[in-house]
Every structure is written in structure tokens, then in C-alpha cells.
Design brief:
Keywords: ATP-binding, Ligase, Metal-binding, Nucleotide-binding, Queuosine biosynthesis, Zinc. This protein is of the alpha/beta class and 218 residues long. Helix content is 38%, strand content 13%.
Length: 218
């Protein structure tokens, strides 16, 4: 099977991005990882991201500071005055854990690294159950890819397209877990909890989704 040349993967330390990283190792010749410290309540995830990047033997792992998010209010992930909800996500509206324009900012930063590294794939692990978040929907990914291509020095010089690689868009979290099992992802070394506690709280939406997805696997 022919591999693509290079990719930079958005790596949070959770099960979705870890599975994407292992998939990228299979599908690409060179794999880079990028993680973000944006003042998140669950900053402990970065410890897991570092370990995963090391285990995956990536070319390089970049950790980028995004300090302005601490100035924003209203998101339970970056505003300590907002309580992290318990139970499942709401179905028809963005949850209180939404961080404004997070994936737009992260993809923009990752695209700058991709431009500089001259790799034309940027990997993001959004999936079908992420749709309450506006910046996890297929139409956002399509628009982000178009914007990246319009502004890329790499594209202008090399006459090649940039691609936002989002292979899980049509998959459930359970599907991702099963793929991860097939790929040998060390799920025990991933972290998903909005509270940022160790051990995880087991009650927040991402803890519940993780437990359901990994049932019988981990």
C-alpha cells in the first residue's frame, strides 16, 4: 500500500486523536504531532499527549501556547466559574463545554506548521458524535480546508493542495475504538475527562462517551 508523504496530527491526548495518530503512522511516511496549551481545565491531557507522541515515534511533537483563551468567559473548559456538566451532551445545541472557534484556531496554527514543514495533510479526529460542536461538522472541515489552501505558501509554491484529514467524520466513537484496537492504540495511556482529575471523574460527557466506546476493549 502506497503511503502519503507527511501529516501533522492534532493530538489532545484523548482516544480519538490517539487513534488518528496510529492511523497516520500506518498511512503516512512522516508523522508530526501538535498539541495546545490553551488554559484548559483538563491540562493534564498534555502529559498523555507527550507520552503518546513518544510511543508513536513521531518526527516531532510541538506544544503550542494559546494564552488568549483564558480571557474568554462562558466555556466550562476554560472558565473556572462555569460548572462542568454531568451526563450526556445535549442533542440540538452547542454544549457549555464549547470553546469558541477552537478547531478553527488549532487548524490555522497547525497549517502554519504544515506550511513550514512542507507537509500537505493536517489530521483532526472529529467524529459523528461531535456534531453538537459547530467546528466539528463536515461543512466546517470543508470550509477550513478551502481557507487553508487559499492562504498557504506551500500551495502557492508547490502547486499542491493542502488536505484536512478527518477520516472519522462518519464514524461513531465505538467505531473509532474498534479501529484503535485493530491498530494497537494503547488506550490505557489516553485521557478523556473535562474535570481534569486523575483518576477521571466518570460523570462528565466525555467520560461517559469514552466508557461506552471502550466497553469490552479496555
Amino acid at each position: 500500500m502506497k503511503k502519503h508523504d507527511g501529516i501533522i496530527v492534532l493530538l489532545s491526548g484523548g482516544m480519538d486523536s490517539a487513534t488518528l495518530l496510529w492511523l497516520a503512522k500506518r498511512e503516512f511516511k512522516k508523522v508530526y504531532a501538535i498539541s495546545f496549551d490553551y488554559g484548559q481545565r483538563h491540562k493534564v491531557e498534555l502529559k498523555y499527549a507527550k507520552e503518546l507522541a513518544k510511543l508513536a515515534e513521531v518526527e516531532d511533537h510541538f506544544i503550542v501556547q494559546v494564552p488568549f483563551y483564558t480571557s474568554l468567559k462562558g466555556s466550562a473548559l476554560i472558565d473556572e466559574s462555569v460548572e462542568v456538566p454531568k451526563g450526556e451532551y445535549p442533542e440540538n445545541e452547542p454544549p457549555v463545554t464549547t470553546v469558541p472557534m477552537r478547531n478553527l484556531i488549532f487548524l490555522s496554527i497547525a497549517s502554519a506548521f504544515a506550511d513550514n514543514l512542507e507537509v500537505n495533510y493536517i489530521g483532526i479526529g472529529v467524529h459523528a458524535l461531535d456534531t453538537p460542536y459547530p467546528d466539528c461538522r463536515p461543512e466546517f472541515i470543508t470550509a477550513a480546508e478551502a481557507a487553508i489552501n487559499a492562504g498557504s505558501t506551500f500551495v502557492a509554491k508547490k502547486k499542491e493542495r493542502m488536505h484536512v484529514y478527518a477520516p472519522f467524520l462518519g464514524m461513531s466513537k465505538r467505531d473509532i475504538a474498534l479501529l484503535g484496537k485493530e491498530l494497537g492504540v494503547p488506550f490505557e495511556k489516553t485521557y478523556s475527562c473535562y474535570m481534569g482529575t486523575e483518576p477521571p471523574c466518570g460523570e462528565c460527557p466525555t467520560c461517559i462517551q469514552r466508557e461506552e466506546a471502550l466497553r469490552g476493549i479496555l
